[in-house]
Specification:
three-stranded mixed beta sheet; 5 strands; about 10% strand
Length: about 190
Amino acid sequence: MNRLGIDMERVLGGREMLRKLKEHTAPIVWAEVVGEQVAAATEVLGVSGGVLRVSAKSSVWANELTFYKTDILKRLNIKLGTPRVPVITDIHFQSRGIKPLPDAPQREPEVEIDSIALSVRERQQIEESIYAIKDPELRERLRRTRFTELRLRNWRLDNGWVPCSGCGELVAPFLGGTGMSCPRCRILGDRG
């Protein structure tokens, strides 16, 4: 394999050309690295000087992906065959929206969070937790908030999110596997 690398360097005019080739391969392998769900919510805008520019379909997606940037960079450079000397050194996430692919099949509309059913037991637990609140307006706001949080958690569990091995918070499925850590636990683990 080393001999192949040396030959490619000669053919392509040196290490700089090989690095550029690998850099411009990053958009091609993006979907494979991040998975179907993230790929569907993002669009690679370009790459220059080791910086990959990615547009997300919303600011929420852009913000969430920023937390996973280190993991994505690591996996991307491994896929490119440059784990020790990264070709892609940074990813800039923007919330410019994404263009639908011309021949892409029509996707099902996104699920409205209020349409996710809760069990009788889940509803009962929420009602018990807010029972002591005297102010009816505050109690109703808290009820709606708790219903939304539980519906979102149920949706995430149904769509492949897994509990963090450190704190139990749900971790996005594009990280893959079980026993993953959330961004907060990874940061605290690095400092500890």
